[in-house]
């Protein structure tokens, strides 16, 4: 398969791609903790097997001064003491909507989130999760080429 055979969303649906970018802008303006979003995007991308997104979100997190040790431990975050309670609750929420079998124990997970995040931030976190799933699917379909 050549580069020209791959999905190019910018070419086939620039309006659709712009709509996704606009949602990302809403998230960025919301004030949700940037490091928390890096971690959730990276963890969901790991689970979804999106090589492009794993690389991108590792790079972005490091650029925002995330430690390599925490990035290395992300895959085993449940067994690591390097993550805050808010990060742990957010990672559990992200995994609940990613791992095959679907969300389980959502009432408990939501209660844990409410201990650490505002309702607005929980809503933004849900958008982060929805958007990273969309980007992962687009990148996998594009075989890792840029849109």
What does this structure look like?
- The chain is mainly alpha-helical.
- The protein has one domain: AhpD-like (Up-down Bundle), CATH 1.20.1290.
- Helix content is 67%, strand content 0%.
- It has eight helices and no strands.
- It has helices at residues 9-12, 14-29, 34-48, 51-63, 68-73, 85-96, 106-114, 119-141.
- Helix 2 (14-29) runs antiparallel to helix 8, helix 3 (34-48) runs parallel beside helix 8 (119-141) and helix 6 (85-96) packs antiparallel against helix 7.
- The longest helix is centred in the C-terminal third of the chain and has 23 residues, at 119-141.
- The relative contact order is 0.19.
In percent, how much strand structure appears in the residues? under 5%
How far apart the termini lie comes to 16 Å
The outline comes out as: globular
Largest β sheet strand count, sense and barrel closure:
none
The computed structural class is: mainly alpha
